């Protein structure tokens, strides 16, 4: 059943006066159409397989013809029946079916067989043979007598006892059905044509047996090999029982067959083309009034009707069949059912071979029952898919309606409201990629990007525009932005929002408020344009280094995302994967010309670029590559034969490459100066120069040997890093290998990232009532207060440990926080100060490699601090082993990546007493 298509045929119905059926052929291409009269095409089906197609069309033809009044059908008992045609059109149609009505046969009689003449005497209706002369069919008055006198010389089908054997690869041919086949054997084709010429257009069509395990589907190798079979090989592969087939037409190698009656091969007569002797088979005699046979046939009919209910594909076909069911005899019904079923070839062959009519009906019943099941499954699959599709369509329609309703009610949210909430503020140290992230968000959202910095902005007119009364008045930044991007929904990055100036002419923070607030910015009023502008679709992203510096009303409207600095590992990756690559490309250096070792990069990060971001690292890497470019250019210049007057040229090129903003001349010495900032760099460059640059003063042989030198790969290692970037700007943060009495290492956070710092306390003088504290190191107010608190708490703790100790009462202390040039502030050094003072008071140094941070209250409770990640990184960088953090910061620490926390012994404390134990309760062996 599957693959049947009545629609294809129906389309043809309206296109051609003589209709062509859509047989699909053996190799998948469409063969030339078989001409069938309009009246028959209604029942013409196009099954998937070639034979099925043919069978279906033939069955339709057969059904149509069965509509003829019984009077025109002669019984088998009537010898060689000759009747006048019922109508010319039917005769013409039959003529076309057989292909004999064409001009070259027009003067010959033709037979149109739509059922085989397999008469057995018991089924008179079974034999329907119409024999007329074409001329006669077109004449009007000739009577039956005259027609009977004409065709007696032609052999009847049953006279063919030796036939050409045609191999059928896919399905057997049933009597009464069409089948187009391809004959690839030229000898066989010639013999068939010859037969047709001799008015003996019959051959035997036999199904080919499959080779075990071979794929016999259309187009398969096995199918192709069937056409190559010849002679005995072919003979051995043919099923014994086949069909006497009338050769309806031959077009090229396509032969259209019409099945007539069953045959059985008895012996091979000749090999090429294969010719066989056959017996004509007849059904076993049966009683047409037998109840069992009747019942079986009724079941076949009712099953066909069931198929009709579930499958629209068979509807026309079976409907017609059921209308004319009375015209069939039992064997024909069985053949019909099997032929139009989608059963496989062996099942069909079994039906063909079955001569017992009851058994044949039973076999067919099985096949059509299977069809019912298949069509039920087909129906349920179709239903399920239909439901799925209609469900999806319904959902889609409902969603669209919902959207429309929401829009109507003003409830619809665009992707901005759906977003990465309100205004996003990226906060973090300089150079960690905040601006770059903003740019990436715009790219990801497919929005235009506009950036403006409000650092130091103090004039409200910059944001809101000038009133037009002023000379040189301009619209504000937002109007300029919209004009620039040309869309209503750009991503606007407001940089440095924490550095907003305090305005003399209005408050820029308040103006920004109007700009950023989603409640207000739908009607933003620019003074210059003086019309409300809708900024509600704009996605604002702000960046800041210190969130605390952002005005509170603004901060309140922001979603702050903190971007901490990078650790060494991360910087290494950024340098290797991105910075190095871009710098190398910018300087026009090839990968194979340079190697910067890991050690060099690490040294660069640790000793030159300690800041949280990578901007400084980028500058250094660019510097290194520019110098490498210089070196390579000079090498290249020196390897070319020096021509007087040309030796200056490379320096000009270099000047462009190396130019980092300074004026560079075309003299080599000037180039060197422009590159290096320290005297060491100059020395390095001068050294490079003297190695490679040739002058006219040099002897010719030296020039030539230099010229033949191949270009060397430039290696940048930690050992020669200073040649490229000068001496390290950062020295080890550790001043002491072992902290002396009164000195403790603290951890600090700066806008540049984390760092370690020492708190040093020393005794100035002692004397009755001289207790005092002197502070130095550019401490801010908060830090000063913190020191006072530490002094008081230390005194209390010492008295607890050593009641009656007069140390703090009688000692003038000096507390210093190096480096003195750097301003410092904040309360987080509180616990470090206490430890430093107690160390001095007890004359006991603290545990080795210990660093701590935490604000302290007067009651010695430890409060949380900020910048845990940066401080942890700084501690690791300084080789600290034990770190003390406030207990409340445990959550922040736990969130850090493992590679940041690696190798640290971290303690979380809530009271100073815990720090005391960690710092002082150790034996001296551990410290050393
Ligand atoms: N993760 C990273 N990968 C590659 N390059 C980076 C990364 N982070 C920062 N950079 C580079 O560092 C430079 C500075 O980045 P960017 O301007 O985005 O930093 P920022 O945080 O906005 O700095 P600022 O606060 O000073 O404005 C850029 O050249 C950028 O390409």
Automatic annotation (TrEMBL):
Q: Where is the active site?
A: 828, 871
EC number in record: 3.4.21.-
Would the keyword Transcription regulation be found if you checked this record's keyword annotation?
no
Transmembrane ranges, per UniProt, are none
Q: Which reaction does it catalyse?
A: Hydrolysis of proteins in presence of ATP
Q: Report the GO terms under cellular component.
A: mitochondrial matrix
Ranges for domain Lon proteolytic: 738-922
Whether Magnesium counts among this entry's keywords is no
* A family per Pfam: Lon_lid
Q: Where is the Lon N-terminal domain?
A: 163-372
Q: Where is this region: Disordered?
A: 131-153
Name one molecular function that GO assigns to this entry.
Answer: ATP binding
> InterPro entries from the entry?
AAA+_ATPase, ATPase_AAA_core, Lon_bac/euk-typ, Lon_lid, Lon_proteolytic, Lon_Prtase, Lon_prtase_N, Lon_prtase_N_sf
The alphabetized list of GO BP terms reads:
chaperone-mediated protein complex assembly; mitochondrion organization; protein quality control for misfolded or incompletely synthesized proteins
CDD domains with a match to the protein in the record: RecA-like_Lon
User: What family is this protein classified in?
Assistant: Belongs to the peptidase S16 family.
What name goes with this protein? Lon protease homolog
Recorded source organism is Rubroshorea leprosula
